[in-house]
Specification:
Order of helices and strands: HEEHHEEHEHEHEHHHHHH
Mean pLDDT: 87
Structural class: alpha/beta
Shape: globular
Radius of gyration: 22 Å
Distance between the termini: 33 Å
Length: about 350
């Protein structure tokens, strides 16, 4: 079950509560679901009860209590708990998790998260002559193209030429989406860092933040997010090799203990699709870009860091210890780790960064 599908399930629960006369609210168009934050449990959490409390004229906890029975029996959901002021924490059926892992492994890094949702559409990214803008535009183009669109990157020279080009584009085809890509410029040339660290230094910060062009991006230690992401990918490849030496292979299934990794892997297609959607709603023929569009590469980079941290927590229990024999749980955890490595490899590829098997 993807976050989009789970959002629809949550809205269905709201609709059933309204139809039963338990709530008097307009059913919203969208319900936000995300991995639970601090104090949360389960695979996903939603704040829909807090969102509906005021229009319903009831406390958020009461709204959550009314919605819980309508959620707990939905297909693919095995449990719903209420935490904090009224967050609904949702546990998914492990069969759903196994199907997700199998899908990731079948599709691989070049296809998982990709779609043809924007097939036939054309996006024009206007970029000034500045290294960070060019790198951000390159990754944004890759992400939008992963959803089936065609992307053109055009350099901006002078304001008059820019306006002239814009008018010609609009006259030629008014279906083009035009977006200015203008993150805060790099304070210095990042080339001495090497291609991978240079790109990460420009992409990981939010576009409104000034990037740090320092040797910290080259240090192989936990405090370096790029190192953690690449190290996590290399470790997932290593455990698959080690498992083969022990005579067992990955097999998707129930992979207790529960881990935040599954929601993060499920959320990866949404990260790519949202990048395309925010680009599609970016400014057309206007001088200032929408931050949500140019922030897409930074969101992807931060998502990969979260995936890396979650899989590194899982790896210590992935292989048997001592004389322990491989079990179904080991095979399932191994499959989950390999799926995480697949997502890390695919995401790094979209960022234009190498994902080595050995590090």
């Amino acid at each position: 079950m993807t976050p989009v599908e789970l959002s629809r399930t949550v809205l269905g629960a709201v609709r059933r509560a309204v139809d039963a006369g338990e709530l008097r609210v307009d059913v919203p168009e969208r319900a936000v679901v995300a991995p639970p934050g601090a104090g949360g449990v389960g695979d996903y959490a939603t704040n829909i009860a807090l969102q509906l409390a005021r229009p319903a004229g009831q406390p958020p906890l009461r709204v959550a209590e009314l919605l819980r029975p309508h959620l707990v029996h939905a297909d693919g959901i095995t449990g719903v708990e209420i935490t904090g002021p009224g967050f609904l924490n949702i546990r998914l059926d492990q069969g759903v998790a196994a199907a997700l892992v199998r899908r990731i492994l079948d599709e691989g890094p070049a296809r998982y998260g990709h779609s043809d949702a924007l097939a036939g559409q054309v996006y024009v990214l206007r970029v000034p002559y500045e290294v960070r803008a060019e790198v951000v535009a390159d990754v944004l183009a890759r992400m939008v193209a992963s959803q089936g669109a065609r992307v053109e990157i055009r350099q901006q020279k002078q304001q008059e030429q820019q306006k002239q080009r814009e008018q010609q584009t609009l006259q030629k085809d008014d279906t083009h989406e035009i977006l200015d890509v203008r993150p805060v410029p790099a304070p210095q040339d990042p080339t001495p860092l090497g291609p991978d660290a240079a790109r990460w230094a420009l992409l990981h910060p939010a576009p409104s933040d000034r990037p740090r062009i320092t040797a910290d991006h080259l240090v192989q230690r936990e405090g370096n997010p790029l190192f953690r992401v690449r190290y996590a990918h290399a470790r997932t490849r290593a455990v698959v090799r080690n498992a083969a030496d022990l005579g067992f292979t990955p097999e998707p299934g129930a992979a207790e203990p529960r881990t935040p990794l599954l929601p993060l892997l499920t959320d990866y297609p949404r990260i790519l699709a949202t990048a395309a959607a925010t680009t599609a709603t970016g400014t057309t023929a206007t001088p200032h870009p929408r931050p949500t569009a140019t922030a897409a590469p930074a969101r992807l980079a931060r998502h990969l860091v979260a995936v890396a941290d979650a899989v590194l927590d899982l790896l210590p229990v992935t292989l048997p210890r001592g004389d322990e024999k491989p079990t179904a749980a080991h095979r399932a955890r191994l499959a989950l780790a390999e799926a995480a490595g697949t997502v890390l490899a695919g995401g790094l590829s979209l960022l234009g960064i190498d994902a080595p098997d050995h590090l």
